[in-house]
Specification:
Layout (H helix, E strand, L loop, with lengths): L3 E8 L12 E8 L8 H19 L7 H27 L7 E7 L1
Parallel strand pairs: 1-3
Antiparallel strand pairs: 1-2
Length: 107
């Protein structure tokens, strides 16, 4: 069985999209079958991978887009909080062998 964490963020409709368009969902799979999660180093590596996935899922924006920067910060906070809780479950062995799905809504 493949051990994975799946992170997803739901992006709200932007100015480029039609007003009634469906939100865009982005998903990143965080592999961890190569880690020994019983060790502090393995757990720390998983948390680092989760953070990189959170950054990838929430995206970036221009330094001049203050509202966009705030949306991305909120997305990262929300997604990291949910993803860290799921990663802790995986580390504790609560979700052995099953993928974990984490979703956050970017407003």
């Amino acid at each position: 069985m493949t051990k994975t964490l799946i992170l997803a963020a739901l992006a709200a409709t932007s100015l480029v999209q039609p007003v009634l368009a469906e939100p865009i969902t982005q998903t990143v799979v965080v592999e961890h079958q190569d880690l020994d999660l019983a060790t502090p180093g393995g757990a720390k590596t998983l948390q680092h991978r989760v953070w990189r996935a959170v950054v990838a899922v929430c995206g970036t924006t221009s330094e001049f887009d203050v509202a966009g920067k705030n949306d991305i910060r909120q997305c990262r906070r929300d997604t990291l909080q949910a993803a860290s809780a799921k990663a802790d479950q995986v580390i504790a062995g609560a979700s052995r062998g099953e993928p974990v799905r984490v979703a956050s809504i970017r407003k």
